Amino acid sequence: MLKPEGLSSILYLMQKKSLYPQDYNPEESIAALATPWGESALAIIRLSGLDSLKLLSGIFSRDGEIVEAAGNTLHYGRITAPDTEELIDEVMIAVYRAPKSYTGEESAEIFCHGNPAVIKRLIGVLADSGFRYALPGEFTLRAFMNGKLDLTRAEAVNELIRARTDRARALALNRLSGAIEGKIREIRDGLAGMLAGIEVWLDYPEEELEGENDLIHEAEGWALEIEKLLSTYSIGKIVQEGLVAAIAGRTNAGKSTLFNRLLKEERAIVSEFHGTTRDYLEGYISIEGIPFKLIDTAGLRDTGDPLEAEGVRRADMIIRNSDLLLYLVDGSLGLAAEDRELISTYHDNRKLIPVWSKSDISTAGTPEGFIALSAVDGTGIAALSKEMVNRTAGNLSSSTEERVIDSLRQKELLERAFSSLEDVKKSLQDEVYLDLIAVDLKESLDALGEITGEVTSVDILNRMFKDFCVGK
Amino acid sequence: MDFEGIVIGGGHAGIEAALALSRLDFSCLLITQNLDCIGKMSCNPAIGGLAKGNVVREIDALGGQMAKLIDQSLIQFRILNRSKGPAVQAPRAQADKALYSQLAKWTLEREGGLSLFQDTVVDLLLTNSGREVCGVITERGRRFTAPNVVLTTGTFMEADIFIGEFTASSGRLGEPAAVGLGSALRKLGFEVGRLKTGTPARALASSLHPERMREQPGEDEIIPFSFANTKVQRPRVSCYITHTNEKTHRIIRDNIHRSPLYGGKIQGVGPRYCPSIEDKVVRFPDKASHQIFVEPEGLNTDEVYLNGISSSLPEEVQEEFLRTVPGLEDLVIMRPGYAVEYDYLDPLQLYPSLESKKIKGLFIAGQTNGTSGYEEAAAQGLLAGINAALKLQGREPLILSRAEAYIGVLIDDLVTLGTREPYRLFTSRAEYRLSLRHDTADLRLLEKGYDVGLQSVEARDGLLQKKREIEEIKELLDKRKVQEMDVEKVTELKIHQGKSLSRALKDPKVRMSDLVSLDKGLAAKNRDWLYQSELDIKYAGYIKRQERQVDRFRRMENMRLPADLEYSRVIGLSTEAVEKLNKVKPLSMGQAGRISGVRSSDIAVLLVHLAKND
Ligand SMILES: Cc1cc2nc3c(=O)[nH]c(=O)nc-3n(C[C@H](O)[C@H](O)[C@H](O)COP(=O)(O)OP(=O)(O)OC[C@H]3O[C@@H](n4cnc5c(N)ncnc54)[C@H](O)[C@@H]3O)c2cc1C
Ligand SMILES: Nc1nc2c(ncn2[C@@H]2O[C@H](COP(=O)(O)OP(=O)(O)O)[C@@H](O)[C@H]2O)c(=O)[nH]1
Ligand SMILES: [Mg+2]
Hints:
Oligomer: heterodimer
Distance between the termini of chain A: 30 Å
Helix content of chain B: 25-40%
Bound molecules: flavin-adenine dinucleotide, guanosine-5'-diphosphate, magnesium ion
Radius of gyration of chain A: 28 Å
Shape of chain B: globular
Strand content of chain A: 15-25%
Largest sheet of chain A: 6 strands, mixed
Number of strands of chain B: 23
Strand content of chain B: 15-25%
Number of helices of chain B: 21
Number of helices of chain A: 17
Structural class of chain B: alpha+beta
Strand order of the largest sheet of chain B: 17-18-19-20-16-21
Helix content of chain A: 40-55%
Distance between the termini of chain B: 40 Å
């Protein structure tokens, strides 16, 4: 068993992609938005690099002050475009001096207004002044390079960012303590045992070896174990990303209102005009510890507007790929022929939950099987939540499983191990030479080894900073 | 300086080292304890076998001597594992021991620039700094100077042999140990350990009953070990197979307390894979019988070697248990089996060039590095000799990768992992053995031998021609379709009618030998090349998959690490990794990753460190 610090660093190595250590160049100053894109009261842009304060001073009203500033100080001022003198925003700048910063380099954080247009402009002028937009994970890479973070803590940062629910945190913790590694090691040991058996037989041609064991049987057993582990991927994904619950229905059924209600925030624009929501919106909620990714879709109707038509097309795709479908029928209008048609279209393959919306103003009785709900006064929200949990119970039934694969990388490697093992099985059945079979067996072993980090390769390293939240 | 290179020891390692140095035009002195013992086979009279046979052919491709020596002295030839796959087929030959040794000595004598001298080296001469070798001192007080010394002492350094209660200071029965050098090296601060190995009794052939044993003849056709030989014509003899039984084992068990191994006299660690019969009986009590191969030691001798039953029990016990074996009832022992315990130097103290990290110009090869086996010794000797020469020329050392040669696997294992027991090659030590077939050794390595200067222009041109012709064969097989009349000749082709011959060849039931009869173009081709094409085509899928694995492997190998990197300065490495890395001083990231105790997180830190300092 690997020590936890080794283990987490390996997990760390494996989960990141896209950023390569070769990308590290401390001479370059980087910038990135550290808060989510979108409307908010405040946004933070993070800067780091050798010349970041000097570069920043070119666009900051108190340029002298900031160049001289001591570490851990705050400075109020204006940011203007360097050539046009156009005012972009009034901001607060936090100055950090090396090595006392997140990255260990000279750094700054710009606190600006959380308006996407402002943020865009700000990043634009930063780029004009010599900052490069940071790659995902690059701040953490720098922190790591400068010895500010060891791999373990870098890993922890990433996990923390990604874990959305208690369950995700618990599973991450479990991974850190080696539950998956233990299992994979067990399979690896088994395969290594098979390989060793083959090797002995190959290396001692002069000896008569007794009791050649049943290799096919063994290969089958281990393939099954890998398959079992693979099957937990969907659970892992759910825990990590949430079950996808799409809200659909005809235009004006109250979808966006319900979306906002469930998210407890005003994200989607609600209006009495049909066809207001043209693209889809996503939001995360957690009900009884189960994470859901809610998607508010465009209303479904035949439309002449090409933009809206595209929204409808996307809605259709989302619905087909979702785990749950909350289908809203406007209770104040009643069930229309189009609703019946749409329900039957999506009925067969979806976990459809029919919802009778606007129950506060509905006059007709609620049809059989529908949940009556008012997004305005809140009636039926509890019933819907309960139903959503019930419907997903099937998906999560094996979620008592302590070992859960959650990274795509792990899944892909397990699949590689599995398919190589299938090749082994087939070759054994076809009585292919054992030294050839050993090639596939080794491939399977290698793939498993990459998961636990026993096989080190450049690939593993190149995956180092994958999936990193930009700016963290 | 008296010479440009000095080689200590005229065993299998020393022969190759001395020849490489002098063939690369450096004046060289080979000092060995007894000139009549040059190239002696201490143990079994055979060269080759699994992985080892591949090594012999690799040595040949690089420009070494072993393959040529065995081609001229073999008395039986076989390809092992013919019924298994292509990766584990390997040539093995019984040797006429005396002839082999005589040819080796003669080859050395005829090499211009090479001097042979009989004496025993007892100490090294160092420069004033104490960090560079500049010569040797012998038992008789002679001093010879040279900027390079290759140390190949085999089983002789401070060696003792054991037969029951008898012990003597010898490296081989009847030959004195080389005493003094081991202590001198210890004093210089080398980590010196003790290993042991053993050998079985030799018997008089005419005292055996071959009719009570199973005859094992050789194959009719001999594939030369050396790529330079197109045909080898030698007399053939047979071996015989027999088995021990319960009676044999009881005698061994009853006398086990008289074994120096079990009596605690021997401290050295023996090879697990090549146990003495005492070990076999004690460790595998359930096995009712063990195999014995009776192998002739030569054409002009009646001595036979009893392979598989090495023992250091008292002589009379050896005779008693051997006589319980069918065919050996009346056996007359000519020399008893014995065990030998000797000094070896921990190979972690070497760079992959086989040069010592501690003392510049000192190269170490062969059994001294903890290996066992003639082929392993010769391979190291050749590389040590080549690298000593390259050093004299101011060139980069020749380091073979694990993916291109068994020799690469051997040396990498030694200098990266070290060894605590006698090390021998197995096919399973090589991750990519499908790419290391014996028949492809020249394709893999001859060019390198040419670059070094040990292969002639003709040899290289020959290789180019071979490559071309193999391409031609493959093209021919791709183009030529299976026709109706072909099916009449080779019924297995029925289901492949209309398809190309190369497609048909992928069918396990279709063999190249069948196809040759169908096409004049094919029939005209060299047999070895046809064989090679057959394997390439038949196993293309597997070979390709293996090549993908090799590609992954190469990327780490190609990331160089400076030998003088001070690992304690690399922030983030674990303490254990710092210690191990500073000891091994790996030259590539791949090598670093194979060191035990270096974790993948350490490798990540190193990769990052490298990237930062590029
Ligand atoms: C008893 C016994 C059992 C063995 N069993 C096996 C076995 O089971 N399997 C196997 O694969 N191999 C076995 N071998 C090993 C095999 O013989 C060696 O691996 C091989 O010969 C090593 O080659 P080498 O060149 O390293 O050394 P050697 O062949 O031992 O040659 C060393 C030479 O150097 C000379 N020498 C040593 N020290 C000095 C010095 N200070 N000055 C001058 N000359 C010196 C010696 O006289 C000798 O001629 C056995 C050897 C012995 C002796
Ligand atoms: N009374 C009442 N009105 C609602 C309710 N839900 C939505 N509405 C109204 O219905 C109209 C359309 O709502 P919206 O959420 O935009 O529908 P969407 O097109 O399905 O997204 C808006 O005017 C909402 O105020 C509800 O539960 N009760
Ligand atoms: Mg809407």
